[in-house]
Amino acid sequence: MFDSALLPVNFHEPLWVIKSLAGYLENFNTRRIVLIHVVSSGLESTSHAHRHLQKILAEIDADSYDIEYVVRAGNEAHEICNVAVERELEFICLPWKRKNFLQRTLQGSVSQDIIRTTNVPVFVYKTWGTPREENCLQNILYAITTDPYHEKILPYLKSEKLAAHNLYLLYVGERAPDPEAEKQRRKAVFEKLNYFKSECREYFDEVRAITTVGNPKRGIFKAARKYDAELILLGKHEQVKASEKVLGSTAERIAHKAGCSVLIIPVASTEEG
To answer: How far is it, in rounded angstroms, from Cα 42 to Cα 153?
Structure first.
């Protein structure tokens, strides 16, 4: 499930970030890494890209991974998504670089374009500081909903390839408009949380269910800080609401704003199979 990863590099990342991300992938038991660099036509030579990628390969522990690289030309997000599918890689790993509002408006964000368009899981790696000495996940926060498609996240949580100590199952939602509807809402929430808790208990040292009322985006940020989450796990429905196409999906916003790494898993609805 986490055996192979596509790691885009644009040569602006410090080398220690790439090495740190590669080391972090040990938490997912990843064994194969494909580096990709997309050449901008007329601005950069392919031979220069090959030389730079070979230097990066030399710095990554070849004993831990089967590593190769590929160079493409064209639209960066489009080529990255295509290679992930062509090589049958199981997720895309993005070293996140924060951009301010003006940069995002004028230049766009390749990372957000990938999150929006790909049907492959995306791991957004955030360091926000110096390299870590150890790659050991302590706390994962999974933002759950009562939608049936979220059960497709269970294999990821139950995978022996996901190494972590503690799992926090978080539900954040708005209060229902009347007492009876609120009672039914709370019942559905607790049933879903208890189901996930029972299914995941044997795979973690501790599994804790948390529910809160409010805006999901703000609630997820707050809980991630409170419980010192190192990784936020999100399901991204393939059917994006029209409003989210304009305002940005919850997954995109959390990937941009969260202070920790984020794993986003696209899932089709139960009806779609």
So the answer is: 42
The letter for the amino acid at 230 is E
Distance CA 241, CA 249 (A): 8
Sign of CA dihedral 38, 123, 248, 260: negative
What is the pLDDT confidence band of residue 87, given thresholds at 50, 70 and 90?
A: very high
Least confident of 42-51, 92-101, 201-210, 214-223: 92-101
Which domains, and CATH codes, for the chain? Answer: 4-125 (3.40.50.620), 137-267 (3.40.50.620)
Name the β-bridge partners of 267. Answer: 237
Nearest-CA neighbor of 162 among 203, 202, 125, 126?
203
Among 164, 165, 133, 135, smallest CA distance to 23 is for: 135
Which tens digits make up the pLDDT trace of 32-86? 999 999 987 655 678 888 988 999 988 887 677 899 999 998 899 999 999 999 9
